[in-house]
Amino acid sequence: MKLAIYREIPARLPVSRLRRLFDRLVRSEAGRKRAGTVNLIICTNARIRTLNRRFRSVDRATDVLSFSLDSPDAIDSVFGEIYISLPHVRRQAASLGRGVFEEILLLFCHGLLHLFGHDHDTKRRERAMFERQTQYLKTLSGGR
After folding, report:
1. Tens digit of each residue's pLDDT, the chain (144 residues)
2. Of 47, 56, 75, 137, which has fewest CB within 10 angstroms of its CB?
3. For residues 86 and 99, what is the distance between their CA atoms, to the nearest angstrom?
């Protein structure tokens, strides 16, 4: 599986950490199905609001959206896309006392877990998904 990163707006990104996180998560979550590409798109609030309205019927900007597209076993496929609104992330990170890079990594991990079938639609599944998310982020930071 490959990761492609697109910036619809200028952005500094923790690219090497994004790639390490991606590699770890794919090794654990994808099993043998490791073909295809995941696109990470860094976008504006307007773009993510349009996507949120169109696909979720929610007319507001959000931090992250993920979309499963093709089967993960097709070589030239796009397995999924993850959209992260950089302006939303900047405000959110500041309000939570986190760095922008850390917030991007957290949201990227969250989006990847959704692509691999995890969800937080019940309390039990939410707890399991967020624990998994925390573990991946801890391994990325050396266990801290």
Report:
1. 899 999 999 999 999 999 999 999 999 987 766 678 999 999 999 999 999 999 999 999 999 999 988 766 666 788 899 999 999 999 999 999 999 999 999 999 999 999 998 999 999 999 999 999 999 999 887 654
2. 75
3. 12
Q: Is residue 48 within 8 Å of residue 85, measured between CB atoms? A: yes
Q: Helical H runs in the chain?
A: 15-29, 45-56, 86-96, 100-115, 123-140
What's the gap between Cα 61 and its chain centre? 16
105, 76 Cβ separation under 8 angstroms: no
What amino acid occupies position 77?
Answer: S
Contacts of 41 (CB under 8 A, 6+ apart): 6, 8, 81, 82, 83, 84
